[in-house]
Design brief:
Helix 5 packs across helix 10 (284-300) and helix 14 (408-422) crosses helix 15. The chain folds into three domains: 14-99, 3-Layer(aba) Sandwich (Rossmann fold), CATH 3.40.50; 102-313, UDP-N-acetylmuramoyl-L-alanine:D-glutamate ligase (3-Layer(aba) Sandwich); 323-455, Protein-Tyrosine Phosphatase, Chain A. The chain has helices at residues 22-33, 45-49, 86-94, 101-111, 127-140, 173-176, 197-200, 203-211, 232-240, 284-300, 308-313, 342-349, 388-397, 408-422, 442-455, and strands at 14-18, 37-41, 57-59, 70-73, 98-99, 117-122, 145-149, 166-170, 186-189, 222-226, 245-249, 259-261, 265-268, 271-275, 323-328, 331-335, 355-360, 362-363, 378-384, 402-406, 426-429, 433-434. By secondary structure, the chain is an alpha/beta fold.
């Protein structure tokens, strides 16, 4: 069972929190509950006003950081590239460490004497599904578990777990570059494709940030590497030097991997672990790799091998990740709004032979050119958002039918009409772009898509759109 952290755990410690979003608010509340004093600030007046008054809380601009034990800086606020935020510069000049709230969770857990273990999951794509799946698998076999981090509850919003518990944390590159002591008993790097390069400078900087998930690992720990990682051999050699146990995972039939998938089963070097024919919520090779990675970590953390199949079969997929949100006249509408880059969309496109594809938003570096081998599956592309003309130019070079429709309000009914006319049974929102030109995030984009689908005429021959 979980319990609150002791109310005097951080008594006498003074922390700064800059940026009062999901992570910042949770950090303020948790640090105060553990006895610390907190100086908090956000440029947004409404965010500041939302903080409840507390005798150990000061809300105001930072004029000095002297005396702070650490600064919890919102993950979205840069402290190195493309340029350090003034508050980050102030902290560095004062010798104050800039830390992730996940780092403070680790310190708090160890300060209580709890020996609860930590599992960290990162990668450009798939980390949310793998995080939730691992937590589900551990819970299925009775292991106390708390999941969060970059997904769901902020790390410092998680409860105190007992010695046999496991914290399962999705770790973004922004969080990973702000760790000092954190030790993951099981850590996973699923994949790496270009993303957040403005923040990390280049792919080398992005890789360096991601590899922090393996910091402080040693013999007895597990490092999981996806088989599709660029320069896998070099990464394997680097981790082998720490004497950490390494598991290679693949969603394809790569028998050299420690965990891999055939057409119908999840296997390890001992044979079949789970029949996958009954696993409906993890479509595609990429999701099978997520399942292989979660299984490797779950078994390492104490899950009996014999329980893996039942846990996989009872998993429910996350929203906005290839989630069917309606069926109209035999046409499935799939919400894959979480696909904010081309690599993520490639995984979804590969799952269907023919589709109406809704894409667009704020394109990442390289746009959608890398999806060219999959363009033959697109019966028609309907393009929305700021960079729809950029995507249209790419599709035109490859002679792929497309139309710029600007908004989802236009895209959804036009997609239904086109699917009926072309005899296609899948309409998929998989934008391959960020959402911030029109929405607050991919969640809002996906929810709006689902609402528009529900508003369409119900199927007279079957269930209404869901």
């Amino acid at each position: 069972m979980s319990t609150p952290f002791p109310p005097t755990l951080f008594a006498g410690h003074h922390y700064g929190v800059a940026g009062l979003g999901r992570n910042g608010n949770a950090a303020v509340a948790a640090l105060l509950a553990m006895g610390a004093s907190v100086h908090a600030w956000d440029d947004n007046a409404a965010s500041r006003a939302a903080l409840p008054a507390h005798p150990r809380l000061k809300v105001g601009p930072f004029t000095s950081m002297t005396g702070l034990a650490g600064l919890v800086l919102s993950p979205g606020i840069p402290h190195i590239l493309p340029a350090p935020h003034p508050l980050a510069r102030m902290a560095v000049e004062a010798g104050v460490p800039i830390v992730s709230d996940a780092e403070l969770l680790f310190r708090a857990v160890r300060a209580t004497g709890s020996r609860a273990r930590f599992a960290g999951i990162t990668g450009t794509n798939g980390k949310s599904t793998t995080t939730v799946l691992l937590a589900h698998m551990l819970a299925c076999c009775g292991i106390p578990v708390a999941a969060g981090g970059n997904l769901g509850p902020a790390a410092l919003g998680l409860p105190l777990l007992p010695d046999d518990g496991v914290y399962v944390l999705e770790m973004s590159s922004y969080m990973l570059e702000r760790l000092e002591q954190m030790h993951f008993n099981a850590a996973c790097l699923l994949n790496l494709t270009p993303d957040h390069l403005d923040r990390h400078g280049d792919m080398a900087g992005y890789e360096t940030a991601k590899l922090h998930v393996f910091d402080h690992q040693h013999a007895g720990d597990l490092a999981v590497l996806g088989a599709t990682l660029p320069d896998y051999v070099r990464l394997h050699r680097r981790l082998a030097a720490t004497r950490t146990r390494i598991a290679c995972v693949s969603g394809a039939d790569v028998e050299q991997c420690d965990y891999y998938c055939t057409a119908h089963a999840l296997c390890d070097q001992g044979g079949v672990i789970a029949d996958l024919d009954g696993v409906t919520e993890l479509p595609g090779t990429h999701n099978r790799e997520n399942a292989a990675a979660a299984t490797a970590m779950a078994v390492h953390l104490g899950m009996p091998r014999a329980m893996v199949e039942a846990a996989l079969a009872t998993f429910s997929a996350l929203d906005h990740r290839q989630k069917k949100v309606g069926r109209i006249g035999g046409i499935d509408f799939i919400n894959d709004s979480k696909a904010t880059n081309a690599d993520a969309s490639a995984r979804a496109l590969a799952c269907h032979e023919r589709m109406i594809w809704i894409a667009g938003g704020m394109a990442k570096a390289g746009g959608i050119e890398e999806l060219a081998p999959l363009f033959g599956r697109v019966a028609l592309a309907l393009l929305v958002g700021r960079d729809a003309p950029v995507l249209a130019a790419t599709l035109a070079r490859h002679d792929i039918p497309h139309r710029i429709v600007d908004t989802l309000e236009r895209a959804v009914p036009e997609a239904l009409e086109a699917a009926r006319a072309l005899g296609v049974d899948v309409v998929m929102l998989s934008p391959a772009c960020a959402s911030f030109d029109q929405f607050s995030g991919f969640e809002a984009r996906g929810a709006h898509f689902a609402a528009l689908v529900r508003a369409l005429a119900p199927d007279p021959d079957g269930p209404a759109a869901q």
